[in-house]
Design goal:
two-stranded antiparallel sheet, 4 strands, hpI Integrase, Chain A, 156 residues, 55% helix, mainly alpha
Length: 156
């Protein structure tokens, strides 16, 4: 699935899936891992439309613009809420799978939901920039080798 297709699925199911919609949008806009989004706290909300998400696994933290989530961000900031507290990454994966949000891995076409949004973010940015260093910086990778892994997967 492409980023656009994923966004359409999320948008069409917005009312039904609630906070899973917000998780998906943050992942799509910033290329974050599910676990990074789930740890989001109120003090990471910069303003009504921007977040500063802390990264895991050696990646750098980065800012993401999510105007679709304005209401949620305002509410969380005002009341000091951790919006995704109690949601596990496995619940998110199951929801994505139910929605048909998957990414084909390599030649054998195994379907995965674990890094679908992150892979799409890297692929989209690399297609538009054609520069592995810029793509690595956008996704927050400290090592270009990590970014090359995602780009290499797209060529299979």
């Amino acid at each position: 699935m492409t980023s656009e297709q994923i966004y359409v699925v999320l948008e069409n199911q917005r009312d039904r899936i609630g906070l899973y919609y917000a998780i998906g949008v943050i992942q799509l806009r910033g290329g974050f891992r599910v676990s990074e989004v789930l740890k989001m706290r109120a003090d990471q909300i910069i303003n009504e439309t921007d977040l500063y998400i802390n990264a895991d696994k050696g990646s750098r933290a980065k800012r993401v613009h999510v105007p679709e989530l304005r209401q949620l961000l305002v509410k969380c900031k005002s009341f000091g809420l951790q919006p995704f507290k109690g949601i596990t990454r496995f619940q998110v994966y199951r929801m994505y799978k139910r929605l048909g949000i998957v990414h084909c891995n390599g030649v054998n076409k195994n379907k995965s939901v674990t890094h679908t949004m992150r892979k799409e973010f890297v692929q989209d940015n690399h297609r538009s920039t054609k520069n592995i260093e810029v793509t690595a910086d956008l996704v927050g990778h400290k090592s270009i080798k990590s970014t090359e892994y995602y780009v290499k997967k797209t060529k299979s």
